[in-house]
Design a protein that fits this description.
Layout: E1 12-14, E2 23-26, E3 32-40, H1 47-64, E4 68-78, H2 85-102, E5 105-113, E6 118-127, E7 142-146, H3 152-160, H4 166-177, H5 181-187, E8 194-197, H6 202-214, E9 216-220, H7 231-236, H8 242-251, E10 255-257, H9 263-270, E11 278-283, H10 284-296, E12 302-310, E13 315-318
Parallel strand pairs: 4-5, 9-13, 10-13
Antiparallel strand pairs: 1-2, 2-3, 3-6, 4-6, 7-11, 7-12, 8-11, 9-12
Bound molecules: cobalt (II) ion (CO) (3 copies).
């Protein structure tokens, strides 16, 4: 997209200039549109679960902007000659159940015959123009909260290698198919300085996008990062997806990794996530109250880092 010269518009609140989760366009003083599109290749063998996960993943970008999803369209690429039609029907059913859970309405979609199965959503949401959460406004003195454990990429690799247990698979599917809706609702009651969600660039990549946009240095306490059960063992066994190495090559220029951090832990920090948690930056004192509030709502949340100082390029310290 770097070569594209998109026209600026006075109503565009968040556009292509920043690497944010969704575009935001002001309609009037009360309402702005939040728009995003995401689709995935299957991450589980169960089509219904895949539909749920892909939908939760797509909807998440609206929550990460402080918005509420309103209308949704399916996007489908399906190998008609290779896969049973039931697989597509089950996938769409899983997606629809998540759409219904989010409170949004399915209004249409588009499908093409393609060699590789892909499914996702185009989501349109709304947000008050003054309540937009971007990833570019983190402040010194903030701490960083994460709302889901990492390791879904490593887990997928372990599942393909038949190393993951039933329990492992169940935990991973539950984490990926969970909407970020409830967490977004809790944080709407706090003065959040910055927010994004953790997906393909991994925890480090999305934290670094926040650091770059906010021109700040972030310290990540790797020992405090929640991980799916056994993913550290799987990383030690080399079950690390290519995307994690790609992320590392892409982001390591602006990252310092303390040599004391275990190699498998580093792999998890770069592991590409599907439908990961929200990554929230807010004042240290309020962070603790926010985490407590999440817990009273039955949600998990972990304080994993802090904003330490200004940095023109944005920088990340892994300790
Ligand atoms: Co996102
Ligand atoms: Co996205
Ligand atoms: Co058409």
């Amino acid at each position: 997209m770097r070569g594209l010269k998109a026209k600026a518009h006075p109503n565009l609140i968040v556009g292509l200039d920043s690497s944010d989760d969704a575009g935001v366009y002001k309609l009037n003083s009360q309402t702005a549109l939040v728009q995003t599109l995401d689709f995935l290749t299957p991450v589980t063998d169960d089509p219904y679960e895949f539909g749920q996960i892909a939908a939760a993943n797509s909807l998440s970008d609206v929550y990460a902007m402080g918005g509420e999803p309103v209308t949704v369209m399916n996007i489908v690429c399906f190998p008609c000659s290779e896969l049973e039609e039931d697989i597509l029907a089950e996938t769409l059913k899983g997606g629809l159940d998540k759409i219904n859970e989010s409170g949004a309405t399915l209004v249409g979609g588009h499908s093409v015959d393609d060699q590789e199965f892909k499914y996702g959503l185009s989501v349109t949401g709304i947000v008050h123009p003054d309540k937009v959460l971007t990833n570019a406004t983190a402040q010194i003195g903030d701490t960083i909260i994460l709302t889901k454990p990492v390791g879904t990429g490593i887990m997928s690799t372990a599942i393909k290698a038949k190393l993951a247990t039933e329990e492992n698979i169940k935990e991973s599917v539950a984490v990926m198919s969970m909407l970020n809706r409830a967490a977004a609702k809790v944080i709407s009651q706090f003065d959040i300085n910055a927010c994004t969600d953790v997906t393909g660039f991994g925890l480090v990549g999305h934290l670094l996008e926040m650091a770059k946009g906010s021109k700040k240095c972030i310290t990540l306490h790797t020992g405090k990062v929640p991980m799916l059960k056994n993913t550290l063992d799987f990383a030690n066994m080399g079950m690390v997806p290519a995307g994690a190495h790609k992320n590392r090559r892409f982001f390591e220029k602006l990252t310092h990794i303390d040599p004391a951090v275990d190699r498998a832990v580093v792999d998890l920090m770069f592991d590409p996530q599907t439908s990961g948690g929200l990554l929230i930056s807010l004042n240290e004192k309020k962070s603790k109250i926010c985490v407590e509030k999440m817990k009273t709502h039955g949600l998990n949340a972990w304080i994993i880092g802090e904003i330490t100082r200004d940095s023109d390029t944005g920088f990340l310290n892994l300790i």
